[in-house]
Amino acid sequence: MSNIRFAVLKNESADDHTLWIRSLEEMNYNFEVIELTHSDWLEKVMKSGADIFLARPPGISFLYKNLYDERLYIISDVLKKKIYPSFIENFFYENKRLLSYWLKSKGIPHPSTWIFYYPDEARLFLECAKYPVVAKTIVGAGGSGVNILKDVAQAKEYINKAFSVHGIKRSWMPNLRKGNITYRLWNRISDPLKTIEYFKNKKDSVSLATESGFLLFQEYIPINFEWRCVRIGDSFFGHKKLRTYGEKMSGTSKVSWDVPEEKLLDFMKYVTDIGNLYSQALDIFVDPSGNFLVNEMQCYWGSKNLHQMIKDDVPGRYRSIDGVWQFEPGDFCRNNSFNLRLQHAIDLFESEKL
Q1: Is 341 helix (H, G, I), strand (E, B) or coil?
Q2: Which of 189-203, 216-230, 273-287, 319-333 has the lowest mean pLDDT?
Q3: Closest CA to 306 of 248, 237, 234
Q4: What CATH number is attached to the domain comprising 321?
């Protein structure tokens, strides 16, 4: 173990940062936790002796997302502290609006996306739109902010909500697309008080996350699966996410361990290389013509699976060595891949590339 010191930049959530802590403890590193949402955040950052600041941006409300982004910018670009993942990766996180601008400006294939700040402009779009149309909130994981609008009447109703004082609220109800309904239901009814508290907190969080005054429409791509592709440093993984219930792909926990072909690995490497994005999950559609389309990108992602890729019943990763993709068996996604992230941050620091 080296003498690298770490600071974990906690967001408003009680436990988002705990996987960083688990990794640091397992790998026996010294660290401190800084509450980035508190008023004394800057004093604590400036007094910190940390070599690397480990970020964990929030993904519940745009209010706290803006707070985290602004303060992370000061840490990274003004104070010139070393952070991981990079500022731009954190900036993209749970900001579908910003990501759509970046994908389009870089010429990266993605579902066509339209963002409106004027209701009349949005209504004009409806006259030539092809239905169904996908409507998304800017922040929202697991499909909680995704609505599939079947016709112009539904789209007009959505526009009216988006530009009203009430705005668009994400769902706080149970996500049926995760599957395992019987098991999850039993867990909930076995501790009713805990369940009530859980959904109360979830509902309160969603109330803070109302979005109004703008909206995002996206082209509907007919698919039955999407690729979840992951890159951490020089480690590449991939598997299929399968539809379980309804029309949405987001939020499903049903997977197929199909191994990504080389052209998909090449595409993932190209997209992440072009943006210097090295802690990323990419959700990639394959359209009816066989083209790859980037649907979403996140520097953090949830996973119920112990691994991100399995080939011939063996978990492992791909690495590009001298331009050739090579599979390496191993348990590389321990602790929801946070151990691999931590090792990547250390490697970057020691090679003076962070």
Answers
A1: helix
A2: 189-203
A3: 237
A4: 3.30.470.20
pLDDT in tens, 230-268: 999 999 999 999 976 666 655 556 899 999 999 999 999
Residue numbers of the domain that contains 66: 6-84
Q: How far apart are CA 1 and CA 218, in angstroms?
A: 47
Global confidence as pTM: 0.87
Spatial CA neighbour of 8 closest among 27, 32, 28:
32
* pLDDT score, position 177: 46
Q: Helices 18-26 and 338-350, interaxial angle, to 10°?
A: 70
* Centroid of chain to Cα 143: 11
303-317: pLDDT as tens digits: 778 899 999 999 999
> Which residue type occupies 46?
M
* Residue 91: inside a domain: no
Whether residues 249 and 168 share a domain: the answer is: no
Report how many helices (DSSP H) and strands (DSSP E) the chain contains, helices first. Answer: 11, 16
Separation of alpha carbons 310 and 90, rounded Å: 28
Task: Based on the fold, state whether residues 105 and 119 are members of the same structural domain.
Answer: yes
